[in-house]
């Protein structure tokens, strides 16, 4: 059997599926909860994205990294639109995006409505006083 790029993508996809986070309501080795729902829309073609599983930032339900924390975990870059789930939907007060990435956060589901872009290692300590405090519902992340 010849091992091709297509085979590599299939193996990586199967590995990602086999090592996915457990279903909501279960715990796995004290891992922080993921604030993500399923990807929205069609995935990017395999020639553009190699399926991976990694964090590009974090969100918190209170200012200054307080309250409940969750990682911004993506399956590839670009991430495609992702919706936040409870307890993060419309509850985020502070957030950060890792160096080398930029994420656009939207006030409506499915990456609609007003947005704020956070990029390249930035930390937003407090969204209070903005239209985005406890209003973020979805996001999409890219390489910076």
From TrEMBL:
<feature type="signal peptide">
    <location>
        <begin position="1"/>
        <end position="20"/>
    </location>
</feature>
<keyword id="KW-0732">Signal</keyword>
<protein>
    <submittedName>
        <fullName>Uncharacterized protein</fullName>
    </submittedName>
</protein>
<dbReference type="InterPro" id="IPR011024">
    <property type="entry name" value="G_crystallin-like"/>
</dbReference>
